[in-house]
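Per reviewer request, we include the raw input and output of the structure prediction for the construct analysed in the revised manuscript.
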Amino acid sequence: MKKNILILMAAMAATTLMAQNIQYPKTVKDGTTDTYFGTVVADPYRWLENDTSAQTTAWVEAENQVTNAYLAKIPFRQKLLNRLTELANYEKISAPRKRHGKWYFFKNDGLQNQSVMYVMDELGGTPRVFLDPNTLSTDGTVALQGVYFSHNGRWAAYSISRSGSDWQEFYVINLRTGQLTSDHIEWAKFSGADWQGDGFYYSAYDAPEKGKEFSNVNETHKIYYHKIGTPQSQDVLFYQNPARPKCFYDVSINEEETVMYLFESGAGAGNILYVRDLRQPNSQFIQMTSDMDYQYSPVLTDGDKLYLYTNYGAPKGRIMTADIHRPGLADWQELIAEQQNTLGDISVINRQLILTYKQDASDHAYVYGLDGRLRHEVKLPSVGSVGFTGDKKEPECFYTFTSFTQPGTVYRYDMDRNESTLYSAPKVKFKQDDYVSEQVFFQSKDGTRIPMFLTYKKGLKRDGKNPVYLYGYGGFNISLPPSFSATRIPFLENGGIYAQVNLRGGSEYGEEWHLAGTKMQKQNVFDDFIGAAEWLIKEGYTSKEKLAIVGGSNGGLLVGACMTQRPDLFRVAVPQVGVMDMLRYHKFTIGWNWASDYGTSEDSKEMFEYLYGYSPLHNLKPGTAYPATLVTTADHDDRVVPAHSFKFAATLQECHQGNNPVLIRIDTKAGHGGGKPLAKVLEEQADIYGFIMYNVGMKVK
């Protein structure tokens, strides 16, 4: 590849672009080019990939200054933030879970930046604080990622992240004294803590180069064993595979500590699974599967019998069993066959299986015996999403249910009687009965039937004048089920429609649905989203002037691709933390992990041309009028590095012609989104909704 890198010392100047009198920072261009299979591709803003340079820092400050000045002029911005804050100020309680004779749950009093973990000696007893992440930082930017109890009941390891980064640190609590130990693990990533005796296994990378912690490629994932009371420098390297540097590795151990599983993933849509019998001295791992295109996951280990989930030979998922002495895939036996609907989640509670299936993107749950026989369907409150909580040996069972109009509500469930009783229900300051959700179906460009949920205030007229917030994702086998968000309420209260479309690329209808939105079929995802917008207009729900599209991460790619392919169709576009440079995404942090969905520009001439044909960064055209656009990213995003959004925003401001604002909002001490403190969430959502509502002409009551 040819690279002509210029040394850039020029300060940021201002050039007047008459978009509502906005003066965008002038972003300096250089002569950088790359050559792919004979095609020369310019990348004049390559210098923005250096997120720690003085030039990039100056650019970020200049862009934020312009964006903040614009947002500050939205007349109802503070009123909207006040209402969002009022709506968020309600008690949120998770389902309780039993661990070593005590009950643990999370609670947020209302406006706490992070939820607090509590412990009770008995169910319904007096709760006391077990772990409060709010005490770990002054601004709420340290988030709790996971809590892992040792099997012997002596310890609890917990992981945190700082400022939204994917990097993890582990600490340990002595459960007998409640005190923090001296143990501290750094540079873990995509890791849990899997206990064996008085120590645990975790996955980590070598410490990154200083200044490149959030951008350099992460390679050679290693598994270590940490013994309680020893420094990290003495941790034992348990497993690595230098021959496969771009893979993830982790282990899991059953509660009895008789069986250990090893997972290898990252080079496909699934994983390779290994098993080791810990009852046998000096036993070695035995490879169970060999195809990383399929998912293989242990469900339960019961003596020599292994219960496993897989979508191998069953695109919508099934449950199988194996004998640990003959663990190869060829010897697995089917226990619960693939169903008409997609198997989404599995819980083992009271030695029974609770299987959650997706039916047109909403959940239906069933109780099965370990013999594979169906006992009954769980009676859920309505169409929505459910998650079960319980222990494989304990009779107590809880589930949390949510829908577009019902906040997360916890029910206690009697598995034998098939009866649910209310355990805790949040009280949000809005009139739930004033709103309705419906599911509609439309045909995409190629005739495929696509589902979409619509939520709006009762009495809505289909006169083409309703503002619409159209949201999608469409990738990585991830589904978008019904869910509640208090941040949507002001938009709905003021006559808006929230539309959530279930695009190909997700898991709603199994692996075939997923594959239909990957690699050389990725355009299907964009066609589905564009089709949703056209259907909403055709059916009189909205018009082009009232339509906003929003998506994050892979959904940011979705928005970027659709606004460049059909800039005439949308009034507002909000690509959040999006993958915008499809030619170079795999060169940063763990971007290589997305190749199973996207392919890479290095795979073949055909794959390069396909990616080049829809890459949002490379399909912005000079002299084009684009929708009012608010690009969002954050300085600590080491999942989708901010360079994607930086380069896209710079190019968009260069190419855009018209009066619509095209801005970028760059958050600080924040990452890809996970663990973001509530205060930052509310500020960001106020800006996003304010930008949308202002640009579609809504009048906030």
